[in-house]
Design goal:
The structure holds two protein chains of two kinds. Chain A is α/β, with parallel strands linked by helices. Chain A is 38% helix and 13% strand. Chain A has two domains: 133 residues, Alpha-Beta Complex (Aspartate Aminotransferase, domain 1), CATH 3.90.1150; 231 residues, Type I PLP-dependent aspartate aminotransferase-like (Major domain) (Aspartate Aminotransferase, domain 2). In chain A, α6 links the parallel β5 and β6. Chain B is α+β, with helices and mostly antiparallel strands. Chain B has a domain of 55 residues: 2-Layer Sandwich (Translation Initiation Factor IF3), CATH 3.30.110.40. In chain B, α1 links the parallel β1 and β2. The interface between A and B is medium-sized, with 24 and 19 residues. Chain B: Belongs to the sulfur carrier protein TusA family.
């Protein structure tokens, strides 16, 4: 940071107008930094990196134009669509790309709300949806939240009653909690929605490329950066026969489902990454599930007064969340960062709103001192072991600093 | 003109000691509550005033983790009984 000098200014010691930034002496780095935030954005899959580079050379033209290079771009776009359609076992004309996961979620809700406006405005959703879906529900309809249990799993009885009520435009359910990892009963929720004649929108961002997503939905969205694709690519799938109205002008770009030109190299890389992730999913599931089991057991055993949250079994393979009593979440996140661990937190102090995670609140679990680890294909056993060796000391030091010892 | 009613006693008039943590961010109110409850005999209560957005959730979660009872919750006021 450039700073104007002012302290100690005097004629004998003229102060320069600005000072060169002083580089901090490098801390001894006996460790390799470990990235544990794949549920926000996974590292780019190697095939995505290759595809991105190739597509920047070959696929930067507008696929809607008619000349040879544009037709080559269009081929890349349609090839990407076909790859996604195959992974999801849907038709080509049901797959659309979006500028990112948030726009895809908003488009999904807006399109269903518009298509079903004559039926009603209610948007039934679980209390643990991603904030993008909560915002979309409030913007395009009248939200009707359905509670979850202490593991963060949907209350199916309340869901059935909510979707069967009159005036429901759509129901929205996250496939699995991105914050605590608990899988949602998508198949049962879809059956209830179908019985009520209500279309179901599934936000599959946390699951796609990692675990199978049950069918029965009308609209599905996801985000490429969660499965190892590049940031800035969303996925929107609308099953045929769904009363869904595209919110954007119905021009040549994704038939009104996207607000303008797509980032085609990103789309190509996203599709390549999804295909690769799906092919590796079973092996990665077993490997990461074992690492998460180890984290769950070790944290519970070695960090006193800590709750490991979410379903221990029926969960995503790569996500683990825990809350440490008497610890400030932001301080914990930053202390771990100094030890080379990138994690996220649902604690209030880490959010711009200063509100705790609505997911942790809906579950009724401790929200301060919260840490989420989300692992990925590059995560090693050694990284996880180093985390487990260091986390008890980090937490103990923060508690000592806060005078919260022996409580 | 009648005199304005006297301000309500901070303890609600029921003799329960009050811990004022208004303006404190979590986990500070929960730490203060843990200290106060540790000093109480079993069955006694303490009332904590905490307006942090996480307080309602985290005070209830703390009570469950520690086996105490949240006897009243009317944010920003929470009454906890040591069990």
């Amino acid at each position: 940071m450039w700073r104007a000098g002012s302290v100690g200014a005097g004629p004998a010691h003229p102060v320069p107008r600005y000072r060169r930034p002083v580089t901090q002496p490098a801390e001894p780095t006996a460790f390799t930094p470990a990235y544990f935030d794949a549920a926000t954005a996974a590292p780019l899959h190697p095939v995505a990196a290759q595809a991105l580079q190739a597509a920047y050379a070959d696929g930067w033209c507008d696929p809607a134009r008619l000349y040879t290079r544009a037709r080559r771009a269009a081929q890349l776009l349609e090839g990407s669509r076909a790859a996604v359609a195959e992974v999801l076992a849907v038709r080509l004309d049901e797959v659309f790309f979006a500028p990112n996961g948030t726009v895809a979620a908003d488009t999904a809700v807006a399109g269903l709300a518009a298509g079903r406006a004559r039926t009603g405005a209610a948007v039934v959703h679980s209390a643990v949806e991603h904030s993008a879906v909560l915002h979309a529900a409030a913007a395009h309809g009248a939200p009707v939240p359905v509670p979850v249990d202490g593991y963060g799993r949907l209350d199916l009885g309340r869901w059935r009653a909510a979707v069967a009520a009159p005036g429901v435009a759509l129901a929205a359910l996250i496939s699995a909690s991105h914050e605590v990892g608990t899988l949602q009963p998508v198949a049962e929720a879809a059956a209830a929605a179908r019985d009520a004649g209500v279309p179901l929108y599934v936000d599959a961002a946390a699951s796609l490329g990692r675990v199978p997503v049950p069918g029965g939905w009308s609209v599905l969205t996801a985000s490429a950066r969660k499965w190892g694709g590049p940031p800035g690519v969303g996925l929107l799938v609308v099953r045929r026969g769904t009363r869904w109205q595209p919110p954007y002008p119905r021009d040549e770009r994704e038939r009104g489902t996207a607000p303008g030109a797509l980032h085609l190299p990103g789309v190509v890389a996203a599709a390549a990454a999804l295909r690769a992730a799906a092919a590796e999913a079973a092996a990665e599931d077993a490997r990461l599930r074992a690492l998460v089991d180890r984290v769950r057991a070790a944290v519970a055993a070695t960090v006193p007064d800590t709750v490991v949250v979410g379903d221990p079994v029926d969960r995503l393979p790569h996500v683990v969340t825990f809350s440490c009593l008497y610890v400030d979440g932001e301080a914990l996140l930053l202390a771990l960062d100094r030890r080379g661990f990138a994690v996220s937190s649902g604690s209030a102090c880490t959010a711009s709103t200063l509100r705790p995670s609505h997911v942790l609140e809906a579950m009724g679990v401790l929200s301060h001192g919260n840490v989420r680890l989300s692992l990925h294909r590059e995560t090693t056993e050694a990284e996880v072991d180093r985390f487990l060796a260091e986390v008890p000391g980090v937490v103990a030091a923060l508690r000592a600093e806060a005078g919260a010892v022996g409580l | 003109m009648t005199a304005p009613p006297p301000p309500a006693a901070p303890d609600g008039g029921d003799g329960v000691p009050v811990l004022d943590c208004l303006g404190q961010r979590c986990p500070l109110p929960v730490i203060a509550l843990a200290r106060a409850v540790a000093a109480l005999p079993a069955g006694a209560r303490v009332r904590i005033l905490a307006d942090d957005p996480a307080a309602a959730n985290d005070i209830a979660a703390w009570c469950r983790m520690r086996g105490h009872t949240l006897t009243a919750a009317a944010p920003p006021s929470f009454t906890v009984r040591r069990d």
